[in-house]
């Protein structure tokens, strides 16, 4: 029975992806063409744009948004949305920097931040799957809740007593050339792309976003995979919170304000649909 459901599900997914139209090709290529045009124009306007120092700075500034957008890509493919990412990023960054302040290791502090982000993702998925709250309303509520909790636990004050070595996470280089945030972004992009293409979680995300009822009849455990999807997105948001805090070696309770709009814009411009069922990692980046 399980094998039959898996086969019917695979057939349904393949049907959605067959024979892309000219419009589909234009939508896929437009983000890449836009990037090429932008780089060309900026290179002409400023001789300093295509320098190692400037490109390194651009990579550091955009890595945080893009890492969050990777998690948002899977969420939006599944037909959902997460408006809480900016607030969750601030909360996770505060949790991680407070661990650092209490003399925990960097690895433990980053893990703590990712767990904090994953916890909010788990809460979002519970509201959506158990209480049947729409993703927009559920994450709008947790956006305010996460920001409020962050301000309460910090009294609105930043976390500043942090080791200077923490700055390497956001401003360090690998082999003196590759920015650490860029290396992390590339690794996470490969991981997310692998999940979308080669795992059930990715295939089921497309199926749920394309037609949730068809996915349910095909035997897809929708609740379980939505929990995994939102938790994964929350964990990436938590990591992004630590990278953001590392850039200033400070945990800011006001960090991430408005980031949700930039993240959603990146995913949608990259080819994802607000109604679900479409989107790629390459397009988001």
Characterize this entry briefly:
With 285 residues, this protein is mainly α. It has 13 helices and two strands; from the N terminus they run αααααααββαααααα. A hairpin with a 3-residue loop joins strand 1 and strand 2.
Q: How many structurally independent domains?
A: 1
For the report, how would you describe the main beta sheet? Answer: 2 strands, antiparallel
Radius of gyration: 20 Å
- Strand order across the biggest sheet? 1-2
Topology:
Blueprint: H1 2-17, H2 22-45, H3 52-77, H4 85-101, H5 106-129, H6 135-154, H7 168-171, E1 173-174, E2 178-179, H8 180-198, H9 200-210, H10 212-217, H11 222-248, H12 259-269, H13 281-284
Antiparallel strand pairs: 1-2
Helix pairs in contact: 1-9, 3-8, 3-9, 3-11, 3-12, 4-5, 4-6, 4-11, 5-6, 5-11, 8-9, 9-11
